[in-house]
Amino acid sequence: MEVIAIQKSALDGMKNELKELLEITKSATEKYASIFNKEKWLDNQEVCLMMKITKRTLQTYKDKGILSNSRLNRKNYYKLSDVKTLLEAGQPYNTDTDGFNN
């Protein structure tokens, strides 16, 4: 076991810096915590599996405004409630290339 001796004032300074860093981290994450705690978010793969659609169909849903998404660190996320709403509607959207809903 190695023992390192430092002055009490240096130790107190490090403690204070750590406390400040913890406070900064808490304040930075507090404003986003309510967003993620209230709603479950899904990524592309989870949405495709849940809806039984391809990634291309999911992209079409996004392009046509059928399913909204949010981006975080270049990754798309979807609200579970939005996906459930679309599923309950029976996916009435035909995404054929002609652009018309059938």
UniProtKB/TrEMBL annotation:
Entry GO MF terms: DNA binding
- Keywords, sorted A to Z: Coiled coil, DNA-binding
InterPro entries per record = DNA-bd_dom_put_sf
- Show the coiled coil region(s): 4-31
Q: How is this protein named in the record?
A: DNA-binding protein
